[in-house]
Design a protein that fits this description.
With 118 residues, this protein is of the alpha+beta class. The chain is built from two helices and six strands; from the N terminus they run αββββββα. It has helices at residues 3-16, 110-116; strands at residues 28-35, 41-48, 69-76, 78-86, 91-99, 103-108. The strands form two sheets. Strands 3-1-6 form a three-stranded mixed β-sheet. β4 and β5 form a beta hairpin.
């Protein structure tokens, strides 16, 4: 992961979770999204399940190409939906992911993309 992606990710997370309330326990989680597909990911968003809108694009202006990982930490404890948009503008959504203290890893290959497209 490039330093630019890490900096952009940290900035996006800070903005996207400013308005999100945690349950007050102060516990944070991390998330790793591993692109094991043959497609580039152009946008990745999180949204607490009780919110209608998606959070900021965690990639910013970067792209997550095949073989790269996006690593993020400091996610407030909660349950989230995760959305990925690939280079063909296909959307993949993983619903109801519990990010409370657990360090979640989501490995996405072509079969996973095909199975979760909307």
């Amino acid at each position: 992961m490039t330093a630019k992606i890490a900096f952009t990710l940290a900035s996006a997370l800070a903005l996207s979770f400013t308005a999100c309330a945690s349950d007050g326990d102060g516990l944070d989680s991390s998330l790793v999204i591993s692109n094991e597909s043959t497609y580039s990911f152009i946008e990745i968003n999180l949204s607490p399940i009780d919110h209608v809108a998606w959070g900021a694009d965690l990639l910013g202006t970067d792209v997550l190409v095949p073989g790269e990982q996006l690593e993020t930490s400091g996610i407030p404890c909660g349950t989230y939906d995760i959305r990925i948009i690939d280079e063909d503008n296909d959307m993949c959504v993983l619903d109801t992911v519990d990010l409370c203290v657990d360090n979640a890893v989501w490995r996405i290959d072509n079969a996973e993309l095909a199975g979760c497209q909307l």
